[in-house]
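My hope is that you will study the protein record below before we discuss the fold together.
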Amino acid sequence: MDPDHVDISFEAKHGALLQETPFALPFHLRVRILRYLISLDRQDYIDAPASWHNAQIRRSHVVEDGYDKLNNLGHNLKRTVQISFVNQEGLQEAGIDGGGLFKEFVNTISLQAFNPSYGLFCTTGQNLLFPNPQSFNVNPWAGSVDDLSLFEFFGRIVGKAIYDGILIELRLAPFFLRKMLGKEMFFDDLESLDPELHKNLLHLKNYDGDFEMLSLNFEVVEDHFGQARTTELVEGGRDIAVTADNVLQYKNLMLDYWLNKRIARQSLAFMKGISDLIRPKWIRMFSPDELQMLISGSVSPVDLEDLRANCVYGGGYNAEHESIKIFWDVLSTFDSKQREDLLMFVTSCSRPPLLGFKELHPSFCIQKTSHSAEEANSRLPTASTCMNLLKLPAYSDPKACRERLLYAISAGAGFELS
């Protein structure tokens, strides 16, 4: 059987098969099955515009207003949500949300809520995110909203992004992705959290020296805001020495503590939020790496031919316009990182859609600016990320086009949110 012609509806009805042997089908077909399942589920939430949810969001308080306006929707967040932004001066911005403003909202709230400086998430040594074990103590909303409610809401935001096919610039730690999939933790998963701890425990497992010299007990000592905090791995653990006879038990308890118990509350709340929109069995068709791609896009290099084939034009541009030809010629000289930076500049996500640029909504669009021919070569391009729109001056000089593009995408110059 040709795997590219598998009956998606048949496979969607046989979830047990996909749960047990998901890798029998290629990744892109499982993505199509997920989209099919979501489209079926969406039928229960298709409604008249009069019943759409409208939310006014202050740009200066995106997380706070998002929580206040959307958190109580629960699974009804599956319905259409229209966003209107209020600028820094307190004025409502012009424009009707056809989906682009909500996409911008999802990307903006994700960047802010998952930023380690916000306090609810922290990073591994590789700058990959996982819930902050001390979230209760650093909750920015302490006294008004508990940290678990925030984790649940942020889970809904990620669930809504997957449900609507919105890619967000979010890199999660592999062990946390495994938790999201309900998978058992293994010893090597610890390496993605703390390579040094993983190395030390591996050494301890194979240690054949005198354990008394190590002075280890069944307890963990952590820094807690400058204070040493001790947690027993078992009752009375501080009085139980690690020996050759119990070292494997110690290793397993350490694994359970660092990967499970420390963030159990936060992880459960986060997954509860996701499950309001995405059924757990749907995403269990995927591996941790594949789940990361569902959230933030393909790890494949930006395919210029695919992007070009699915690009649309506006403002007087077309595929044969001289400035457009210059643009694509210049883009062909960009390295992988520069192409990702351009994609980030225009769409707010550096990775391509999973199934190619035909899946990008709205389509990648290049619009001609109103600058005169004389001044175009000195102008910077700008972008409206909510519409995946690149506003490109009519460059006549390839060198100027390259220099202006590189400056804009590397410095964020000329960036427009709407």
